[in-house]
Amino acid sequence: MGKSKKISRNSAVRVSALRNIRSSKLRNRQTAVEAANSDNAMPLLKKLASPSQTDRAMAARAIATLIENAKVREMLLKEKLVHTLLKQSITDSSEEVVAEAFGVLRNLALEEGYDVCKFLWRENILISIEKYLVQIDQSLSALESLTNGQRTLLFTLAENILSLLLSLGTVSDDIRNSITQRFPELPEFDLRVIKNLECPESLRVVAADNLYGLTEDNEVYISVLQKSDFHVHNSLPIPVQIYISGVQFNILEFDPTAGIDILNIAASIQESFNSINIDDCICQLEQNEEGEKNTEKKEDSRISAQNSLAAVCVGLELITAISESVAFSKFGSQLQKSDKSDGIDVLSDEEGEEDLDEMQGLVAGDKDGEIDDFSRDPVQQMFVQNIFPKITSYLSYTFLKSHAFNALNNLCWTLNATSNTSELWSKKAQEAFPWFVSFLMDTNHLEIESVTACMGILWALASQLKGDGLLTYADVQNLITKVNEVSGKPDYIEYQVRAIGFLGVLAQQEGRTDVTKSISIFLVTQILSLPNKEPQIVIEALNSIFDIFADQDYDYDRVVFVKGGLLKHLVECQAEVRKMVKRIDKRKESELRLKADEVMVNLQRFCVYKSKEQKK
Questions:
Q1: Which of 83, 352, 378, 453 has its C-alpha lying 20 to 30 A from 600's C-alpha?
Q2: Contact 498, 455 (CB under 8 A)
Q3: Which residues contact 478 (CB under 8 A, 6 or more apart)?
Q4: In sequence order, what are the residues at sequence separation of 6 or more whose Cβ sits closer than 8 angstroms to the Cβ of residue 163?
Q5: Please, are residues 269 and 319 in contact by the beta-carbon 8 Å criterion?
Q6: Whole-model pTM?
C-alpha cells in the first residue's frame, strides 16, 4: 500500500526540520545575510588566533552565522576551519571562545551532516565534550554562585554541546554507540536540565530534543530512563512536553510491556498541538527589530516561537510513527502481506499556502456526538475525531505541509487497517476526499513530494470508500494523462506506483464499465511496456489487475477482461515479467525482488485461474 516506510525519526529529514532553530543570542539576521561572503570570512578565520579573547569570541560567533551560506562554508572548510576549532578554539583559555567555538561545530554538524560528524568523531571530539559536560553539570548545581554573565556562558555552552551530541549521534550507529558508552548517564543529565527551572527554556528544549533523539532504539539509555522518575508534567514548556512524549514512545517501541499507554502519548501530543498558536509563532518570527532596547527579549521570543514550530514538526513525525505502530501491532501480518508500495515520504517545504476553506467542516471535527462502531477503541476515536482534523489544518502552513502530508498518509492507511468498518471514519474520508483531489488536479502543484504524498492519501481514502463514484470518467482520463506525462522520470516512480494503486481501487466499482475499461487498458499498457518500465510500476499494475478481475461475477469482468482479450496479453507478457524479476539483484534490492517473485507466481496462477473460469 502507499504507506510510508518506517524510517529513523532521527534521520537527516528530522534534523533538517530543526536546522537553524538554535540561533545565537542577539543575532541580527539581516546583518548575517549581508555578511555572508568570502571577503568577510577569511579575516574572521584569522581572528580566531587573535591575541584578544574578545576578537576570538566575536570571530567564532560571526563564523557560526556565516557558515549557513554554503559557499562560505565550503571555503572555510577548505581552509581547515574544523582543524583550527579543534586544536585552538575549544581548548581556549576563554570560556566565551569555547562556547562560541562549539556553536560553530554544532552548526557545521547540522549543515554538513555525516562527513563533518564522522571527522569530528575520529578526531576524538567526545573526549573534549566529556570534560566540558562534567564542568557544566557541576556548574548547574551551583547556579546561585554564578553571575548573570557566567550563567549566560554556561547555558550557551550546554546548548551547543547537547545539540552537537544529537547531530553526532544521529548520523551513524558507530558514533551513537560511542556516545552511549562514553556518556552512560547522559539521560539523567538531560532530565536534570529539563527539570531545572533556573535553566532557560531554550536549553531545556535542547536537552529534551537530545533525550528524544538519542533514546531511539537505545537499550542502554532506555534502561536508564526506566529506572528514573520519568513523566510528562504539564508544568514543562510545551515543546519539551512534545519531545518527552517522543521519549515515551521510544520506550514503548522498545519495550511494549513498559506500562506506557499509547493513548496517553497521543493525547499529550494532541494537547500540545492545541496549546501552540501557529499564527502567533509566525508573527513572532516576522517581527522586525525596533532598536536595541528590547532586542534580547525579542530574540528570546523568536527562539521560543522557533522551538514551538520545530516541536510541532516533531509531533507530526510522532503521529506518523504512532499510527504505523498501532496498525502493525494489531494487523502487522496482514499489512505486510498486502504491502504493495513502501515509498518514503520526504516532502519539501517550498510550497505556497493553500486555500483550505473547503475543509473547514473537516478541520472543525465532528461535534454531533454520533456513536460509532469503533468508539470503544479510544485511540482510533482520537485519531479520527481530533488528530486527523488538526493535522489537516496544518496544510495551510508551508513549513508544516511536508510533515502534515506524511502524517496524514500513514494515519489514513492505519485507520483503514484498524477501522475499516467505521462509519465515522468513512464520513471523514468522504469529506476529505474532494479537497485532496482538487490539490492533485491543480496544475499549480507540481512539486513531486507533495503530489506523491497526496496520491498516497487519495489511495487510502479511496480504499476506505471502496472507490464509490469518487472520480468522473473525465477526471480519471485527466489523471491517466498526468501519469503518462511523467513516465520514464526516475523521481516520479513512487508517484506512478501510488497513482496505479489509486486507479486500481477506482476501477473496482461496478456500474462504471467505461472507467474500469479505461483504467485496465492503462494498466496493461504499463505491463506491456517491459523491459522499458520500472519494476515497481509493473508490480503494482499487475497487483491492481489481480484485484480488479478477481471474480467473474463483477459486471465489468466479461465486458472488459474477456472481450478485451486481457488474458491473452497477460499470458504473453509472462516471459518479460520473468526477465524483469531476474534483473533485480537479490542482495541490493532484496525487498523489491521478494515482491517481484511474488507477483510472478501470482501472475501464473491468475492466468490459470481466469483461463479455467472462462471455460466454465
A1: 453
A2: yes
A3: 441
A4: 22, 106, 110, 206, 209, 210
A5: yes
A6: 0.82
Kindly report, residue by residue over 64-115, the tens digit of the pLDDT: 989 988 889 999 999 999 999 999 999 999 999 999 999 999 999 999 999 9
- Copy the grid coordinates of residue 60: 567564532
Alpha helices in 276-377 (DSSP H): 278-286, 295-338, 360-364
**Own/partner pairs, 125-129, CB within 8 angstroms, 24+ separation:** 125/86, 125/164, 125/168, 126/168, 126/178, 126/179, 126/182, 126/183, 128/86, 128/90, 128/91, 129/161, 129/164, 129/165
Closest to 123 measured CA to CA, from 149, 94, 153, 84: 84
Q: Which residues make Cβ contacts (< 8 Å) with residue 245, sequence separation at least 6?
A: 232, 265, 268, 269, 272, 315, 318
Secondary structure letter of residue 559 according to DSSP: I
Q: Among residues 55, 63, 143, which one has the least CA distance to residue 96?
A: 55
Note whether 281 and 309 are within 8 A (CB).
yes
Q: CA distances (Å), 127 to each of 130, 162, 182, 190, 604, in order?
A: 5, 14, 9, 19, 61
280, HSE (Cβ side, Cα atoms, 13 Å): 9
At residue 403, the pLDDT reads 87
In terms of Cα–Cα distance, which of 350, 353, 359, 355 is closest to 449? 350
CB 340 within 8 A of CB 539: yes
Between the two ends of the chain, the Cα-to-Cα distance in Å is 33
Q: Give whole-number Cα distances, 433 to 68, 413, 416, 429, 436, in Å.
A: 40, 14, 14, 6, 5
Angstrom distance (rounded) from CA 571 to CA 155: 70
The closest of 47, 174, 55, 156 to 106, measured between CA atoms, is: 156
Report the distance separating Cα 444 and Cα 405, nearest Å. 17
CA pair distance 104, 89, nearest whole angstrom: 10
Look up residue 559 and give its three cell numbers. Answer: 465486458
Distance, CA of 580 to CA of 600 (rounded, Å) = 10
> How many CA atoms within 13 Å lie on the side-chain side of 610?
25
**In one letter, which amino acid is 73?**
R
Q: Count other C-beta atoms under 10 Å from residue 107's C-beta.
A: 27
Closest CA to 23 of 63, 55, 64, 58: 64
Q: Which set of grid coordinates corresponds to residue 111?
A: 549543515
- Cβ–Cβ < 8 Å for 402, 348: yes
